[in-house]
């Protein structure tokens, strides 16, 4: 913090500068998430103690471990547990982490595949699991996804395609329509056109479920467009922290609005990562065209463009030796 404002810069640190932990990791990949971009530019109160190495997720190799569960050379994954928020995170070549936050690389995934999926795919998997608990099946109807060019949406498209669901991608940038179809969307809708139309008390009921990454009026529209007993998962706030809603979808169609928080308990982490490396594993030919790599020196300019809505796809910080 400088004069009450968060300021980000690239610095050389020693191991002793990092927050304490039993496991020291040589980083291979750190996902660059919307939340990281907000915290790097002080746009929201995310980081809970300064100075802090940001980066809410990473995949790397154990260099040293004082915990019996992890051995040098083992590839591991860290996300959640306030990584990059209350503990130093992934935007660093060497990371030191409490053993209680570390997970072995899930079966069925390479280090790159695991990093490419990361928090976005885990979040999408949480939403799909919740939809299934609410009764969603592939023949229930299509699943809508907003912010379709973003990392959560792209991984959701891959997972839904793999699991036999039809997905409708909703984007502000129709120039990405072909890429979204290649990523797994069966239909692409223009968010601008949706928002330009005069709102109705209830819209045509067209979605069995929806993953909303943006908030604001699109979330309200999704609720009004969801079928009887359908379920909308509120995942993100790329457009807004709030929305003006109508009660009609709830009292006329028994629509459910559920919240998703990716910092899941261990049982759910193990269960969903096993699926992401197994029967929910997206076809990586769909994901790789959307995967981009940057270096530490590009992080600040990249994250600024991300917040301005100029980027799309999934971005990974790639470290030497990855
Ligand atoms: N609940 C959780 O645990 C959890 C976990 C992960 C992420 N999230 C949140 O979920 C959201 C999506 O994450 P992400 O990783 O996919 O982010 P992302 O890669 O930055 O993508 C967000 C997408 O939203 C759309 N968008 C961006 N700015 C917008 C604006 N001003 N108005 C309308 N649409 C806008 C863009 O899609 P188009 O260009 O295609 O319209 C963009 O690609 C973020 O808010 C993130 O913080 C929450």
UniProtKB/TrEMBL annotation:
Domain Enoyl reductase (ER) intervals: 8-219
Q: Where is the signal peptide?
A: none
Q: Which CDD domains match?
A: MDR_yhdh_yhfp
Enzyme Commission (EC) number: 1.3.1.95
Going by the UniProt record, its keywords in alphabetical order are: Oxidoreductase
Its domain of life reads Bacteria
From which source organism is this entry? Hydrogenophaga borbori
Protein known as: Acryloyl-CoA reductase
Keyword Metal-binding appears in the UniProt entry: no
Is Oxidoreductase a UniProt keyword of this protein? yes
Q: Give the matching NCBIfam families.
A: oxido_YhdH
Named from the GO MF annotations, one term is: acryloyl-CoA reductase (NADH) activity
């Amino acid at each position: 913090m400088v004069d009450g404002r968060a300021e980000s810069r690239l610095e050389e640190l020693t191991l002793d500068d990092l927050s304490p932990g039993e496991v020291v990791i040589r980083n291979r990949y750190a996902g660059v998430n919307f939340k990281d971009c907000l915290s790097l530019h002080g746009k929201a109160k995310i980081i809970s103690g300064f100075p802090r190495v940001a980066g809410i997720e990473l995949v790397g190799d154990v260099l040293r471990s004082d915990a019996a569960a992890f051995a040098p050379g083992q590839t591991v994954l860290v996300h959640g547990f306030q990584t990059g928020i209350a503990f130093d995170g992934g935007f660093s070549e060497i990371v030191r982490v409490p053993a209680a936050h570390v997970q072995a690389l899930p079966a069925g995934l390479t280090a790159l595949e695991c990093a490419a999926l990361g928090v976005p795919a885990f979040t999408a998997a949480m939403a799909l699991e919740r939809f299934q608990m609410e009764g969603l099946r592939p023949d229930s109807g299509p699943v809508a996804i907003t912010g379709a060019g973003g990392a959560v949406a792209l991984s959701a498209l891959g997972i839904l395609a793999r699991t036999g669901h039809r997905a409708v991608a909703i984007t502000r940038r129709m120039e990405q329509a072909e890429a979204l179809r290649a990523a797994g969307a069966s239909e692409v809708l223009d968010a601008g056109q949706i928002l330009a139309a005069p709102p109705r008390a209830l819209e045509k009921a067209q979605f069995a479920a929806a993953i909303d990454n943006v908030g604001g009026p699109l979330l309200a529209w999704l609720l009004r467009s969801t079928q009887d007993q359908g379920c909308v998962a509120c995942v993100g706030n790329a457009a807004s922290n709030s929305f003006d809603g109508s009660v009609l979808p709830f009292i006329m169609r028994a629509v459910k609005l559920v919240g998703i928080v990716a910092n899941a308990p261990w049982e759910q982490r193990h269960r969903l990562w096993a699926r992401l490396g197994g029967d929910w594993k997206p076809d990586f030919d769909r994901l790789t065209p959307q995967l981009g790599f940057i270096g530490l020196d590009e992080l600040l300019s990249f994250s600024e463009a991300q917040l301005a809505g100029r980027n799309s796809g999934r971005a990974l910080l790639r470290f030497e030796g990855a």
